[in-house]
Amino acid sequence: MGTSSLPTGTDSTAPPRDGRLTDTAAHWPVVESVTPFRGAKTAMRTDTVRMPDGAVADRDYQVHPGSVAILALDEEDRVVVLRQYRHAVRQKLWEIPAGLLDVPGENPLHAAQRELYEEAYLKAGDWRVLTDFYPTPGGCDEAVRIFLARDLSPAGGERYAASDEEADMELATVSLPDLVQGALAGELHNSCLVLGAFALTAARATEGGLDALRPAEAEWPARPFTA
Protein backbone atom coordinates (compact mmCIF):
# COMPACT_ATOMS: atom_id res chain seq x y z
CA MET A 1 0.00 0.00 0.00
CA GLY A 2 1.18 3.50 -0.72
CA THR A 3 3.81 2.38 -3.24
CA SER A 4 3.90 2.52 -7.03
CA SER A 5 5.94 0.85 -9.72
CA LEU A 6 7.09 2.03 -13.12
CA PRO A 7 6.64 -0.01 -16.30
CA THR A 8 9.68 -1.95 -17.43
CA GLY A 9 12.05 0.24 -19.40
CA THR A 10 10.93 3.51 -17.81
CA ASP A 11 13.78 5.86 -16.94
CA SER A 12 13.23 7.11 -13.40
CA THR A 13 16.74 8.49 -12.90
CA ALA A 14 16.13 12.03 -14.23
CA PRO A 15 13.82 14.04 -11.96
CA PRO A 16 11.71 16.79 -13.56
CA ARG A 17 13.35 20.22 -13.59
CA ASP A 18 12.00 22.31 -10.68
CA GLY A 19 9.42 19.62 -10.07
CA ARG A 20 7.96 20.03 -13.57
CA LEU A 21 8.03 17.74 -16.58
CA THR A 22 10.00 19.05 -19.57
CA ASP A 23 10.11 17.69 -23.12
CA THR A 24 13.65 17.18 -24.40
CA ALA A 25 15.27 17.06 -27.83
CA ALA A 26 16.20 13.60 -29.15
CA HIS A 27 17.18 12.09 -32.48
CA TRP A 28 17.22 8.49 -33.60
CA PRO A 29 19.42 7.89 -36.66
CA VAL A 30 17.67 8.11 -40.04
CA VAL A 31 19.04 5.49 -42.43
CA GLU A 32 17.06 6.71 -45.44
CA SER A 33 14.52 9.45 -46.14
CA VAL A 34 12.21 9.80 -49.14
CA THR A 35 9.45 12.29 -49.97
CA PRO A 36 6.87 10.54 -52.19
CA PHE A 37 4.44 13.50 -52.23
CA ARG A 38 4.75 17.28 -52.20
CA GLY A 39 1.72 19.54 -52.00
CA ALA A 40 1.31 23.30 -52.16
CA LYS A 41 2.07 23.82 -48.45
CA THR A 42 3.01 20.44 -46.98
CA ALA A 43 4.60 17.14 -47.99
CA MET A 44 4.64 13.48 -46.95
CA ARG A 45 7.93 11.89 -45.93
CA THR A 46 9.02 8.35 -45.08
CA ASP A 47 12.06 8.00 -42.81
CA THR A 48 13.71 4.67 -42.17
CA VAL A 49 14.70 5.01 -38.52
CA ARG A 50 17.17 2.93 -36.51
CA MET A 51 15.69 2.01 -33.13
CA PRO A 52 17.65 1.79 -29.86
CA ASP A 53 17.76 -2.02 -30.19
CA GLY A 54 19.34 -1.76 -33.65
CA ALA A 55 16.23 -2.66 -35.64
CA VAL A 56 14.96 -0.33 -38.38
CA ALA A 57 11.39 0.73 -39.13
CA ASP A 58 9.66 3.14 -41.48
CA ARG A 59 7.91 6.21 -40.07
CA ASP A 60 5.53 8.15 -42.32
CA TYR A 61 4.67 11.73 -41.43
CA GLN A 62 3.49 15.03 -42.86
CA VAL A 63 6.11 17.76 -43.19
CA HIS A 64 4.55 21.08 -42.15
CA PRO A 65 5.97 24.64 -42.02
CA GLY A 66 4.35 25.40 -38.65
CA SER A 67 1.48 27.64 -37.62
CA VAL A 68 0.47 30.49 -35.37
CA ALA A 69 -2.89 31.14 -33.74
CA ILE A 70 -4.23 34.15 -31.87
CA LEU A 71 -6.56 34.21 -28.89
CA ALA A 72 -7.67 37.84 -29.15
CA LEU A 73 -9.56 39.41 -26.24
CA ASP A 74 -11.67 42.53 -26.74
CA GLU A 75 -12.43 45.25 -24.17
CA GLU A 76 -15.37 43.22 -22.84
CA ASP A 77 -13.19 40.14 -22.28
CA ARG A 78 -14.72 38.30 -25.22
CA VAL A 79 -12.72 36.09 -27.59
CA VAL A 80 -12.66 36.80 -31.33
CA VAL A 81 -13.68 33.64 -33.21
CA LEU A 82 -14.22 32.70 -36.84
CA ARG A 83 -16.29 29.95 -38.46
CA GLN A 84 -14.60 28.32 -41.43
CA TYR A 85 -15.25 25.29 -43.63
CA ARG A 86 -12.69 22.50 -43.20
CA HIS A 87 -12.94 19.98 -46.00
CA ALA A 88 -10.94 17.20 -44.34
CA VAL A 89 -13.53 16.85 -41.56
CA ARG A 90 -16.55 18.08 -43.61
CA GLN A 91 -17.53 20.64 -40.98
CA LYS A 92 -17.66 24.37 -40.43
CA LEU A 93 -15.56 24.84 -37.32
CA TRP A 94 -15.43 27.74 -34.91
CA GLU A 95 -11.76 28.70 -34.62
CA ILE A 96 -9.49 31.50 -33.48
CA PRO A 97 -7.53 33.42 -36.14
CA ALA A 98 -4.60 31.31 -37.35
CA GLY A 99 -2.30 30.72 -40.28
CA LEU A 100 0.88 29.17 -41.60
CA LEU A 101 4.45 30.32 -41.16
CA ASP A 102 4.77 31.05 -44.86
CA VAL A 103 8.45 32.01 -44.88
CA PRO A 104 11.22 29.80 -43.39
CA GLY A 105 12.64 31.52 -40.31
CA GLU A 106 9.72 33.97 -40.14
CA ASN A 107 9.20 35.66 -36.78
CA PRO A 108 5.99 34.02 -35.47
CA LEU A 109 4.84 37.31 -33.91
CA HIS A 110 4.92 38.97 -37.32
CA ALA A 111 2.95 36.06 -38.78
CA ALA A 112 0.38 36.33 -35.98
CA GLN A 113 -0.03 40.05 -36.53
CA ARG A 114 -0.58 39.39 -40.23
CA GLU A 115 -3.18 36.71 -39.58
CA LEU A 116 -5.10 38.85 -37.08
CA TYR A 117 -5.27 41.60 -39.69
CA GLU A 118 -6.19 39.33 -42.59
CA GLU A 119 -8.81 37.24 -40.82
CA ALA A 120 -10.32 39.68 -38.31
CA TYR A 121 -9.18 43.12 -39.58
CA LEU A 122 -7.76 43.85 -36.13
CA LYS A 123 -4.48 44.90 -34.55
CA ALA A 124 -3.41 44.47 -30.93
CA GLY A 125 -1.37 46.65 -28.60
CA ASP A 126 -0.36 43.85 -26.22
CA TRP A 127 1.01 40.46 -27.26
CA ARG A 128 2.08 37.46 -25.16
CA VAL A 129 2.86 33.81 -25.84
CA LEU A 130 0.02 31.74 -24.43
CA THR A 131 1.30 28.23 -25.23
CA ASP A 132 3.19 26.10 -27.78
CA PHE A 133 2.18 22.62 -28.86
CA TYR A 134 2.43 19.83 -31.46
CA PRO A 135 -1.12 18.99 -32.66
CA THR A 136 -0.38 15.48 -34.01
CA PRO A 137 3.23 14.44 -33.25
CA GLY A 138 2.50 10.81 -34.11
CA GLY A 139 2.14 11.66 -37.79
CA CYS A 140 3.01 15.31 -38.45
CA ASP A 141 5.86 17.63 -37.48
CA GLU A 142 3.63 20.74 -37.29
CA ALA A 143 4.42 23.05 -34.37
CA VAL A 144 1.90 25.71 -33.28
CA ARG A 145 2.37 28.82 -31.16
CA ILE A 146 -0.77 30.39 -29.68
CA PHE A 147 -0.52 34.08 -28.83
CA LEU A 148 -2.68 36.10 -26.46
CA ALA A 149 -3.55 39.45 -28.05
CA ARG A 150 -5.16 42.28 -26.08
CA ASP A 151 -5.80 46.01 -26.49
CA LEU A 152 -7.58 45.42 -29.80
CA SER A 153 -8.50 48.08 -32.36
CA PRO A 154 -9.49 48.16 -36.05
CA ALA A 155 -6.51 47.48 -38.29
CA GLY A 156 -7.07 50.48 -40.54
CA GLY A 157 -6.17 50.73 -44.19
CA GLU A 158 -7.31 48.40 -46.93
CA ARG A 159 -9.04 45.17 -45.97
CA TYR A 160 -7.48 41.88 -46.97
CA ALA A 161 -9.17 40.32 -50.03
CA ALA A 162 -10.25 36.87 -48.77
CA SER A 163 -10.66 33.92 -51.16
CA ASP A 164 -11.60 30.22 -51.13
CA GLU A 165 -12.69 29.02 -47.65
CA GLU A 166 -11.76 32.37 -46.11
CA ALA A 167 -14.28 34.20 -48.31
CA ASP A 168 -17.08 32.35 -46.49
CA MET A 169 -15.84 32.98 -42.93
CA GLU A 170 -18.10 34.35 -40.21
CA LEU A 171 -16.79 36.54 -37.38
CA ALA A 172 -18.09 36.64 -33.80
CA THR A 173 -17.03 37.42 -30.23
CA VAL A 174 -17.76 34.92 -27.46
CA SER A 175 -17.11 34.83 -23.72
CA LEU A 176 -14.29 32.61 -22.51
CA PRO A 177 -16.57 30.53 -20.21
CA ASP A 178 -18.86 29.82 -23.18
CA LEU A 179 -15.91 28.50 -25.17
CA VAL A 180 -14.76 26.28 -22.32
CA GLN A 181 -18.27 24.96 -21.84
CA GLY A 182 -18.63 24.29 -25.57
CA ALA A 183 -15.36 22.37 -25.65
CA LEU A 184 -16.29 20.24 -22.64
CA ALA A 185 -19.70 19.53 -24.16
CA GLY A 186 -18.12 18.25 -27.37
CA GLU A 187 -19.58 21.09 -29.43
CA LEU A 188 -16.31 22.85 -30.32
CA HIS A 189 -13.43 20.86 -31.81
CA ASN A 190 -10.73 23.11 -33.26
CA SER A 191 -7.51 22.34 -31.38
CA CYS A 192 -6.23 25.93 -31.24
CA LEU A 193 -9.54 27.26 -29.96
CA VAL A 194 -9.93 24.52 -27.34
CA LEU A 195 -6.34 24.59 -26.10
CA GLY A 196 -6.24 28.40 -26.20
CA ALA A 197 -9.39 28.69 -24.11
CA PHE A 198 -8.15 26.16 -21.55
CA ALA A 199 -4.67 27.72 -21.43
CA LEU A 200 -6.05 31.21 -20.83
CA THR A 201 -8.34 29.91 -18.09
CA ALA A 202 -5.40 28.15 -16.44
CA ALA A 203 -3.08 31.15 -16.83
CA ARG A 204 -5.53 33.40 -15.01
CA ALA A 205 -5.64 30.93 -12.13
CA THR A 206 -1.86 30.68 -11.67
CA GLU A 207 0.45 32.86 -9.61
CA GLY A 208 1.28 36.00 -11.55
CA GLY A 209 -1.68 35.58 -13.87
CA LEU A 210 -1.37 36.87 -17.41
CA ASP A 211 1.63 39.01 -16.48
CA ALA A 212 3.59 35.79 -15.98
CA LEU A 213 3.10 34.69 -19.61
CA ARG A 214 6.17 34.64 -21.83
CA PRO A 215 6.95 37.71 -23.94
CA ALA A 216 5.69 37.78 -27.53
CA GLU A 217 9.14 37.08 -29.00
CA ALA A 218 10.11 34.29 -26.62
CA GLU A 219 12.44 31.62 -28.00
CA TRP A 220 10.72 28.80 -29.88
CA PRO A 221 13.08 25.84 -30.44
CA ALA A 222 10.52 24.01 -32.59
CA ARG A 223 10.59 26.84 -35.15
CA PRO A 224 13.72 29.00 -34.70
CA PHE A 225 13.22 32.49 -36.11
CA THR A 226 15.06 35.69 -36.88
CA ALA A 227 14.01 39.11 -35.62
Automatic annotation (TrEMBL):
Superkingdom of the source species: Bacteria
Bias (Polar residues): 1-13
Molecular function terms, GO-annotated: hydrolase activity
Alphabetized Pfam families for the sequence: NUDIX
Protein's UniProt keywords contain Hydrolase: yes
Keywords: Hydrolase
InterPro entries: NUDIX_hydrolase-like_dom_sf, NUDIX_hydrolase_dom
Span list, region Disordered: 1-24
Domain Nudix hydrolase: 62-196
Keyword hit for Hydrolase: yes
Coiled coil, from the record: none
Name the UniProt record assigns to this protein: NUDIX hydrolase
